[in-house]
Structure formats: C-alpha cells, structure tokens
Amino acid sequence: MFAEGAYATHVVPCLPSTPYTLSESFHAGDTKTLTNPTGARGTLEGQTLSLCTAPTNDDRGSLEWIAVGASNSVRGLDLVQIGLIKCTNPGYSVCTGGMRYFWTWGRDPATPGCAGTLYVPPIPISLGAWGGTSQEFIVALASGYWKVYRGGVFQDQVAATNICWTRGLAMWQGEAWNKGDQIGGVAGDKYAISTARYQAVAGGAWLNPSLVAPCAQTNNPFYCEVGASDVVNTWTAH
C-alpha cells in the first residue's frame, strides 16, 4: 500500500491566499499530550509530496514531520521539529521546489514563560536533498541540548536553555502552506508516519504512544486517521 517513491497525483490549482506567514498553514496529523516529554520519533515513508499548480503567489509547501512542542503555545510556533519538505518560497533557502530534509525550532515571546525573549520563527532549515526512501526521524533532549537525527545520524541541535516554553506535546503531522497543496498522499495511497514513539525521561525508554481515533487534526480536504497504536496516516481529497 505504501510504495517507496510513489508519486501523489491528486493536485489542484493553488487557491488565492495572502503571502505566507508562519501562523497561516493547514495541518493533518496526531498529537500526544504529555508532561514534559523529552523526545519524539517516527518513520516517514518514501512518498513524494505534491504542491498545488498554477500558483497565484509563489508560496507553496507540503511537509511531513516529527516534533516536540509546547502545551501552552499561543500561535503554535513553539517546537523543535524535523522531517521532509517540498516548497517554493523565495524567502526560504530550503524551498528549491524539490524534496528536502529539514529541521527547525521556534520560540514565541507571546507564549507564557517566554516573555522578554527574542522571537525565533520556526523557519525550515535545509538538511539536504531527500534520498527517496523511508527513514526514521528523532527529536530528543540529551546533554543539555535538543538534538535532531535522521536515519540514526545526528543532524543539528539547539541548547535547551533557549527553550522557555512548557513542553507538553509529541507530534506526528502533515502540513500545507496553501489549501491547494497536498498533505500526505491520496485516499488510495495514504502517507504513513509509522513506529511513532515518545520519550518521557531524557535517555530513557521510547514508548508506544497508544494512539486512538480520531486524529487530533483532520479537516476537509486534509485528512488523518490512526492506522495503529503507533501509525498516523495522512491524505488529501480535493
């Protein structure tokens, strides 16, 4: 069902929208609410993401990602995140129009605990061109840093002292920047985030999140289902 390199073909013209802002995006996926989680991980399958066509502005994006996020975020910008992205946006160097790995982190002074800090927008940072296969992605707290890994290989980090927000979410999500973009796959070939795990103590065991339906975020035309206790499927039905 989840063929390596399968191409999603259900694309539509981009819908008119204002120029992209970080708080203007669409999501489908699941979230586990926890007390101070120290990590999240999962396998993103090898399926190409799709963007809307004939754009009215050059601001398109389709993402699949793993993150640890804030339970008290005001605008949803407080997180440490890694995953896959395909996008076009002249303001972001990661947006080449091709599939790439990315990571980022964010801090919003409007979020409780962060007053007086500098705003750090979670702008995607490129980790290189996509290799075309399924891989595991990890966000984890270790030795005073939030570290991100791809395929078991360390990629980058941010000092834990930069994280002022209250961490409370392990997240397995798909995202789109235009409502004409595609999140995940299509009904006949859904996009799987599998072997989802979270960590409750730094350096501790990785635990099955025991996900149950319905998904935390699913809204026409972007859909999510819990495929198993540790599987999240996303797709688009334009």
Fold and architecture overview:
- The chain has 238 residues and is mostly beta strands.
- The chain has a single domain (6-12, 24-227), classed as Jelly Rolls.
- 0% of the residues lie in helices and 46% in strands.
- It has no helices and 16 strands.
- It has strands spanning 6-7, 26-33, 39-44, 47-48, 60-70, 79-88, 96-105, 125-129, 135-142, 145-150, 153-159, 167-176, 191-199, 206-207, 222-228, 231-236.
- The strands form 3 sheets. Strands 3, 9, 10, 11, 13, 14, 15 and 16 form an 8-stranded antiparallel β-sheet that branches.
- The radius of gyration is 16 Å and the shape is globular.
- The two termini are 21 Å apart.
CATH architecture tag: Sandwich
The major pleated sheet works out as: 8 strands, antiparallel
SSE series: EEEEEEEEEEEEEEEE
Distance between the termini: 21 Å
Structural class: mainly beta
Low-confidence spans: 1-9
What is the number of helical segments per DSSP (H or I, 4+ residues)?
0
CATH topology: Jelly Rolls
Q: Please, what is the average pLDDT?
A: 92
CATH class: Mainly Beta
Give a short synopsis of this structure.
The chain has strands at 6-7, 26-33, 39-44, 47-48, 60-70, 79-88, 96-105, 125-129, 135-142, 145-150, 153-159, 167-176, 191-199, 206-207, 222-228, 231-236.
